[in-house]
Amino acid sequence: MISRGLFAGAGAMLRLFLRRDRWFLPVVISFPALVQLVFVAAFTATAPTEEARIAYAETSVHNAAFTVTYGRCTAPASANW
């Protein structure tokens, strides 16, 4: 007998989607975490000392693109990295 309910066939469709996307979903889920790790590693390599990070923050205060993207940097000298 065929079920004519609201969710009839939903289980079969869900299994199909999960089977088709078994490689794509883990990539999509783990990609943002990987991007964050790469960003932190790159920033740490670019500014390894506290003085370099403060210099970066001081430069960012006067950069219009930084201000538009992230907002005003209020206290770069006292930044807690």
Please outline what is shown here.
The protein is mainly alpha-helical and 81 residues long. The protein has helices at residues 10-20, 24-46, 50-61, 64-70.
Q: Could you describe the largest sheet, including whether it forms a barrel?
A: none
**Helix content bin:** 55-70%
**What is the count of structural domains?**
2
Which class do the helix and strand fractions yield? mainly alpha
Tally of individual helices: 4
Computed CA radius of gyration, to the nearest angstrom: 24 Å
Distance between the termini: 64 Å
Q: What share of residues are in beta strands?
A: under 5%
The count of DSSP E runs of length 2 or more, i.e. the number of strands, is 0
Order of helices and strands: HHHH
Q: Low-confidence stretches at least 5 residues in length (pLDDT < 50)?
A: none
Give the mean pLDDT: 83
Topology, element by element:
Layout: H1 10-20, H2 24-46, H3 50-61, H4 64-70
Describe the overall structure.
The protein has four helices and no strands. The mean pLDDT is 83. It folds into two domains: 9-46; 47-81, no CATH class. With 81 residues, it is mostly helical. It is 65% helix and 0% strand. The radius of gyration is 24 Å and the shape is elongated.
